[in-house]
Target: DUF1795 domain-containing protein
Amino acid sequence: MDTIDFRFFRAQMPPGWDNQVMVTCTPPPGEEPRRSVVFLRKEMAPAESLSAFAALQRNALAAQLPRFSLMYDKPTELAGQTVPLIVYGWQADAGRLTQVQAFFPAEPGYAWLVTLTAAAEAYDALLPEFQAMLAVFAPAREG
Model:
């Protein structure tokens, strides 16, 4: 696997702006099955725990996504720590999707959401690849 490290820019935003960082990775064009991984750094409410944040995100997905079905929702050992992990399916316009979403701590007040997406029929074959990506995810620490 190639290592990616996103410490390549610095910016200042006006006070009060929502500060989210999102990176989307996909295989080369034409490689099947299609899949993606999205890394999203998101602000949490003050004093909110990672598990409470994950539950709020899960509930929002259940309310927003057509034919949402929760397949897995447990704290899971990933990258040397126990983190909230959910697996769910939903009906997109292009077909049924399965998504894996893991929640990792970032700097205080923030969380990293790692979302892996595949067509439902390809999920089982892609699970080892998804597990390998999650097993080595390492948020950069401020320092």
In short: The CA atoms of residues 29 and 116 lie 17 Å apart. The first helix runs from residue 50 to 64.
